[in-house]
Amino acid sequence: MPDRDEAQSPDNQVRFRADPEVVQALRARMSPRANGLGGIAKRDLERYYAQLAAALPVFGADEAGFILDALSRERVDHHFSHLVWAVVADASEQRGLAARWGVDAAALIGRLRDLTPFEKLALVDASERAHFLYRAKLGPIDDEQHDRAAFLHAAWAVGLAEAC
After folding, report:
1. For residue 83, which of 94, 65, 96, 70 has the smallest C-alpha distance?
2. Residues in a beta bridge with 161
3. Half-sphere exposure of 6 (CA within 13 A, CB side)
4. Cα dihedral sign for 125, 126, 127, 131?
5. Coil, helix or strand for 141?
6. How far apart are CA 34 and CA 124, in angstroms?
7. What does the DSSP 8-state code read for residue 8?
8. Quick check: pTM over 0.90?
9. How far apart are CA 117 and CA 100, in angstroms?
10. Phi, psi (deg, nearest 5) at residue 59
């Protein structure tokens, strides 16, 4: 838990303009104890991030690397996170990723397809965070061994992979 000084820091003040649908959803959650729409949004974001962490499926290191590699050139919007398995399947087929990572692509894609919708969303979120870490750590690198090590490190760092 952050200390009081950290909690009061101007660095962690977050402001945003919400779409009308989000404002409507926030208003529907108002109660006498709520601290305005901002308090509701803060509470809901805390819940959301906790549930993303709890719902994130964990894969073997090579499977997680395969997934991150497959998603490295694709952006999966939250409206389409339920199709993340298809994006991974297409990338695998087009780029021959199963051989590179030594995984059974059909079995792994079947597992991805069987995830719950929220687990798929958690996977997409973890992939976005892992790719940010990957680029921050190494930037664009063409050396396959460096790519592999960076994907594995990023997968482990965001909780997508078992210990590498």
Report:
1. 70
2. 59
3. 3
4. positive
5. coil
6. 31
7. T
8. no
9. 28
10. -120, 165
